[in-house]
UniProtKB/TrEMBL annotation:
One record GO biological process: tetrahydrofolate biosynthetic process
EC number: 4.1.2.25
Species assigned in the record: Propionispira arboris
Family listed: Belongs to the DHNA family.
ATP-binding keyword on record: no
Name of the protein this chain belongs to: 7,8-dihydroneopterin aldolase
Keywords: Folate biosynthesis, Lyase
SUPFAM superfamilies in the cross-refs: Tetrahydrobiopterin biosynthesis enzymes-like
Length: 120
């Protein structure tokens, strides 16, 4: 098994329960962790046997910047589901999102949501 971790990807998106969040938008920070079933890429040294993380970056960016979700759980779950659909070498994916600007009246660094999906 190989694990690939992409940390602290920053995208601007329009997600949130409140209308002003979906209109004004804000920065969101993501971690995407993917596992593969085998280590074929480590043996072949060939990108076609690996997860192209530059492609995954653009894929996640496209979702975050062009779709809108009220709940972070729905956003990360959608990212997980779509990665499994598009990247056949990925066996499981965990996506974490951090939202620093939250509508909470008190000191807080961010709210983080994590979802995981696996192939059956």
């Amino acid at each position: 098994m190989t694990k690939i971790l992409m940390s602290n990807l920053m995208f601007y998106g329009f997600h949130g329960v409140y209308e002003y969040e979906r209109e004004q938008g804000q920065k969101f920070y993501f971690d995407v962790e993917m596992t593969t079933e085998n280590d074929k890429a480590s043996l072949t040294d060939d990108l076609k046997d690996a997860v192209d993380y530059a492609s995954v970056y653009q894929f996640v960016k496209e979702i975050v910047e062009n779709k809108r979700f009220q709940l972070l759980e729905a956003l990360t779950g959608h990212i997980d589901d779509e990665i499994l659909k598009v990247y056949s070498v990925v066996r499981s994916v965990t996506t974490r999102v951090r939202k620093p600007s939250v509508p909470i009246s008190g000191p807080i660094d961010f709210v983080q949501v994590e979802t995981t999906r696996s192939r059956k």
